[in-house]
Amino acid sequence: xxxxxxxxxxxxxxxxxxxxxxxxxxxxxxxxxxxxxxxxxxxxxxxxxxxxxxxxxxxxxxxxxxxxxxxxxxxxxxxxxxxxxxxxxxxxxxxxxxxxxxxxxxxxxxxxxxxxxxxxxxxxxxxxx
Length: 129
Description:
By secondary structure, this protein is mostly helical. The chain has helices at 6-20, 27-34, 38-50, 75-82, 107-123; strands at residues 54-57, 63-66. The relative contact order is 0.16.
């Protein structure tokens, strides 16, 4: 079964929480709202800051805010921050070197399914969740 890591699920929840907040929100508040430890939320935020999806403001009314419109942020983009690849099989990756060459019965069919999956993930936006 295709599944993503918990980190990916929490990253989506974190961004969803930011997208619905009326003002900057602290990591403590987000941590409580989504039921994830503060330290784990910090780990997720580091990746999302590096990807330039979120920013922090200092001060008494500071906190985190989303830098990208929820209507433009795709599920595929979010997943790509926490997951190494978003392929059904390793052979769907562009840099995979298959030892079977053209004799593989799976790659062509699975690659088509993989392409459709990626298109669907591109269509689903943070604002849809």
